[in-house]
Specification:
about 325 residues, alpha/beta, seven-stranded mixed β-sheet, 7 strands
Length: about 325
């Protein structure tokens, strides 16, 4: 099946990266290759783009979609949390810009067999890397009830987490929960009638939580931010698109921490901590999609773009 994707905040990302035609850039979340294509089109033959993804379908699609710029692009299969080793495997030590488009991509949601969606029936899966062992099936059927409650609350901010976790336990005691619609029905029935009538699908938050747990997304984001900042050359920029508050909080805190200089008490006559700011924030507040973009692509509604720039060492 064709791996189609609409790039979100495309022009804002390209402008934020300050792309030099002969620079070295990283698209850490290749996905549908839309961002990669437009970055590579701005590079000359002396420029280079390293595009990373752990999804084999995304990498295979990129071979076709990036054909016209393939001489400037290196495709790497890797988890973006290992961005430093992925870049090093290409013989590169520092880069001029890095882009992250976090979360699940549109093709992963739209292709029913991937098991990400509560709108299509499929085997419980939700793995971004199809070769990893842990899937949504194991989480739902084998994890302790209290652990399921925890991830629903922490990762999905689901207020009915206790009831849903209990319902999952009762259902799996009868037989394994095998499909997405089966799980969605269990979640819906565990919620009070008023919650079922909300505009948002009753299973949305729970499916998000399970997906995050399967792919260890939040810890991966934290590790990736720290490693990405260290990879940037002076003047290089890190641009990150997030889609929910948990990711955005991690990115915002990572940027703020890296932008903080001396932490000595204000009454110290000289700095003794030696801490220097690694980056400066390009803007205090995130860039948001326009109403026109949201009208074209409703999935852009919750997107936020944060950007920081590497400071030269003093």
């Amino acid at each position: 099946m064709e791996f189609q994707h609409i790039s979100i905040l495309l022009s804002e990302c390209l402008d934020s990266l300050n792309i030099r035609p002969d620079g070295v850039y990283v698209d850490a979340t290749l996905g549908g290759a839309g961002h990669s294509l437009h970055i590579a089109q701005r590079l000359t033959e002396s420029g280079r783009l390293i595009s990373i993804d752990r999804d084999d379908m995304a990498l295979a699609n990129a071979e076709k979609r990036l054909a016209e710029v393939r001489d400037r692009v290196t495709l790497v299969k890797s988890d973006f949390r290992n961005i430093d080793t992925a870049v090093a495997s290409c013989g590169v030590e520092q880069v001029d810009g890095i882009l992250f488009d976090l979360g699940v991509s549109s093709p992963q949601l739209d292709i029913a067999e991937r098991g990400f969606s509560y709108m299509h029936d499929a085997k419980l899966d939700m793995r971004m890397d199809q070769q990893q062992q842990l899937s949504a099936y194991e989480v739902v059927n084998e994890w302790d009830r209290n652990e399921i409650r925890r991830i629903l609350w922490e990762y999905g901010e689901e207020r009915y987490a206790p009831q849903i976790a209990a319902a999952i336990q009762r259902a799996r005691e009868q037989k394994p929960i095998e499909t997405t619609l089966e799980l969605a029905d269990i979640i819906r029935e565990a919620m009070p009638p008023a919650a079922r009538r909300e505009k948002q699908h009753p299973a949305k938050r729970s499916f998000q939580a399970i997906r995050i747990a399967v792919n260890d997304e939040l810890k991966a984001v934290q590790e990736a931010m720290e490693r990405s900042i260290d990879l940037l050359a002076p003047g290089g920029r890190l641009a990150v698109i997030t889609f929910h508050s948990l990711e955005d909080r991690i990115v915002k805190n990572a940027f703020r921490s890296a932008a903080q200089g001396c932490t000595c008490p204000k009454d110290f006559p000289v700095c003794v901590c030696g801490k220097q700011a690694k980056v400066k924030l390009v803007a205090r507040k995130p860039l948001l999609p326009s109403m026109e973009e949201i009208a074209r692509n409703p999935r852009a509604r919750s997107a936020k773009l944060r950007v920081c720039e590497k400071m030269p060492r003093k």
